[in-house]
Design goal:
This protein has 448 residues and is mostly helical. It has 17 helices and no strands. The protein has one domain: Up-down Bundle (Growth Hormone, Chain: A). The N terminus and C terminus are likely disordered.
């Protein structure tokens, strides 16, 4: 009875397949996070060369272009994987990573940099397919732990990305080996090339070790669609999912969470690099990269080791709510850091943020997968729609954070540089209260 209600693929996901999925997800986050420490500096360099003064606008555009591409293309990749299988779609994404990471490092105009980030986002829009793969090959008892594995890959990628971006930027200024080379002319190429090499390595592993998870008889029987028809269907799918009581509520919870979390992406470094005389911490780009690496390490510990036991004890819905509260507290506390104990504050604050996020992300994916099975929706379409909304949140977050920071940073009283972080807390609070509209019972307690 339980197997009938919660079907899983007949394919057994071995360690090799799960390792490849881990690497695919990790590299996706490397591509997202690698630019965080040096993006502003790259824009400033290229803007100076082109006599462009709107540096802030271009920073916002480059931060959101990646997520905008994911927003548009994630549902397409998800639906395509329902038709042709997960494996080919994942491998296409790895090829795209290899090409466009390097293209970004070689960018010598702002338009080229913008195009590279957008196209990287297009081919990284298939992270929903990795989650659907996990759903295909996992039974209900395995699901939380395996989604936690994907979550740990997020954490590792978010550790490696900013760390590489901060530590390997401008290598010619730090090591004589790179003086007079292409890395002198393109100071941000080295971390991007390393990301491309990792992508090639994952592609080779996928080709050799990744089996298809979706049996031929389980695939959607759809005729080929044009891009416009696919986009129309995507919009219909998102609208249909949002109209579903539990799936829709959970998707809105995740949207609000991601919105609040990504506001921080734009304003965190703006605060930490701000002059201490104005209330900031005066951090360098390398120090900022290390802070994000600390967030990633704590996320790995949470999602790689804690999420499974905690979920079995308390249930995914409780863990999701608890993670939302922890994240909200950490985000609100950021601008109250004391310069005298800056790194102590950073450890405490990033602990709240990383552990909260580490609990929320896999719990959200686990709940969504289980609800999709209960309501008999195609898993690829559900995950694609969710990833599309999350990408939309990642578009709105940095733009909102940057705009609010700009209009409040010099203010006094109620609206000042604290305001953007207060907005993060408000969005987390809204997500927490909305989560009580989600009704879910774990399979092992479904008879209660």
């Amino acid at each position: 009875m339980e197997d009938k209600e919660y079907p899983s693929s007949s394919i057994d996901a071995g360690k090799g397949a799960l390792l490849v999925l881990f690497l695919v997800t990790m590299i996706d986050m490397i591509g997202f996070g690698i630019v965080i420490p040096f993006l502003t500096y790259l824009v400033e360099d290229l803007a100076t060369d082109q006599n462009i003064t709107a540096v802030g606008l271009w920073v916002g555009l480059l931060m959101t272009s990646y997520s905008a591409a994911q927003f548009i293309f994630s549902p397409i990749w998800g639906s395509l994987s329902d038709r042709i299988g997960r494996r080919p779609v994942l491998m296409i994404g790895l090829v795209g990573n290899t090409v466009f990471f390097t293209m970004f490092g070689l960018a010598n105009t702002l338009i080229m940099a913008l195009a590279a980030r957008f196209l990287a986002g297009v081919f990284n829009g298939n992270i929903a397919v990795a989650r659907a793969y996990i759903g295909d090959v996992s039974n209900p008892q395995q699901l939380a732990t395996r989604m936690g594995l994907i979550g740990a890959a997020f954490g590792l990628g978010f550790t490696i990305g900013p760390f590489l971006g901060g530590e390997l930027s401008s290598p010619a200024e730090r090591w004589n080996l790179f003086v007079g080379t292409i890395f002198d002319e393109h100071p941000y190429l080295l971390p991007c090339i390393l990301a491309s090499v990792l992508s090639i390595f994952s592609l080779l592993l996928a080709f050799r070790y990744l089996p298809e998870s979706l049996a031929t008889e389980s695939r959607s029987k759809r005729t080929s669609q044009t891009w416009g028809e696919s986009m129309k269907r995507t919009g219909f799918n998102v609208k249909r999912m949002l109209a579903t009581k539990n799936i829709g509520s959970l998707m809105w919870v995740t949207f609000l969470y991601m919105f609040g979390f990504t506001v921080m992406h734009a304003v965190f470094i703006l605060f930490t690099q701000m002059d201490p005389a104005q209330g900031g911490l005066g951090f360098s780009e390398a120090e900022n990269g290390r802070v994000f690496a600390l967030i990633g390490i704590l996320g790995i510990v949470t999602q790689g080791g804690l999420i499974g036991p905690l979920t079995r004890r308390y249930g995914s819905l409780f863990i999701l709510r608890f993670g939302t509260v922890l994240s909200g507290i950490g985000l609100v506390l950021i601008p109250y850091s004391s310069l005298d104990f800056a790194w102590v504050w950073m450890i405490v604050i990033t602990g709240f943020i990383a552990i909260g996020n580490g609990l929320f992300q896999p719990s959200s994916s686990t709940l969504l997968t289980s609800l999709a099975r209960q309501t008999d929706y195609e898993l690829g379409a559900v995950m694609g729609s969710q990833e599309s909304l999350s990408s939309f949140a990642r578009i709105l977050g940095p733009l909102t954070g940057g705009y609010v920071w700009t209009i409040t940073v010099d203010g006094n009283g109620l609206f000042d540089y604290h305001t953007a972080f207060h907005i993060c807390g408000i969005l987390m609070m809204l997500a927490f209260f909305l989560s009580f509209k989600v009704e879910f019972k774990t399979p092992e307690h479904s008879s209660q």
